[in-house]
Structure formats: C-alpha cells, structure tokens
Write a structure and sequence with these properties.
Shape: globular
Strand order of the largest sheet: 1-3-2-4-5
Largest sheet: 5 strands, antiparallel
Number of strands: 5
C-alpha cells in the first residue's frame, strides 16, 4: 500500500502509483478541506484518514471520495463522510463542501 500525503500537485507517475491499489484506474482520496491537502493511494479511506489525523488534521474537515482515471469523474462517496448532525450520508451532501473537495482534488491531482 502506497499512501501519499499531497500538499502540492502530484506528478503523473505518482498518480499512476496511487491508482495501483484499486486496479490501476481509481484513486481513493481523503481531503482536508481546511488545510487544502489530501491523502491518496490506499484501499481504505480510513487508512488515509488516519494518516491525515496523525499529521494534525481535524476529523470534521476530512472528507472521502475518489477519482476515476478512466471516466475522469470525481466521486464523493465514503463511509467517513457519515458525520452525525453534519452529513447523514456516505455521499458529501453539502454543495460548499463538495466544491472545496473538488477544487482541492483538481489542484493536487493536476486535473
């Protein structure tokens, strides 16, 4: 498992390496929408979430999803998105949070 913590745009070879964990076409990501960083490359969002927490992120700012290299689609689904009183779904429901999540992924994965 290769989890990368990104605070600057990834190189093409890093993006391919992060996708290897999920068949070479999909990258699971957890984004810290407060710090503008992300962790990617694990099979489980919880592993990426843990890395961010260990590096000073706060759980309330962490949101999970992914990026499909084949369809070029950003996804917003992760069990870590279930936040009682804030988000009652595995999908990111708040449009402002979705926008922050999307913008950080686009910037750090060079989309």
């Amino acid at each position: 498992m290769m989890i990368k913590l990104l605070n600057k745009p990834a190189e093409a070879n890093e993006i391919k390496a992060m996708a290897r964990e999920i068949g070479g076409f999909y990258i699971k990501v957890v984004v810290d929408i407060e710090k503008g960083i992300l962790a990617a490359g694990a099979k489980m969002h919880t592993d990426e979430e843990q890395l961010l927490l260990e590096n000073g992120s706060k759980k309330e700012y962490l949101w999970g999803g992914g990026y499909d290299l084949e369809t070029k689609q950003i996804t917003f689904d992760s069990i870590i998105n279930n936040k009682p009183g804030v988000n009652s779904s595995s999908d990111i429901m708040d449009p402002l949070i979705r926008d922050k999540f999307t913008n950080i992924i686009k910037e750090l994965l060079n989309l």
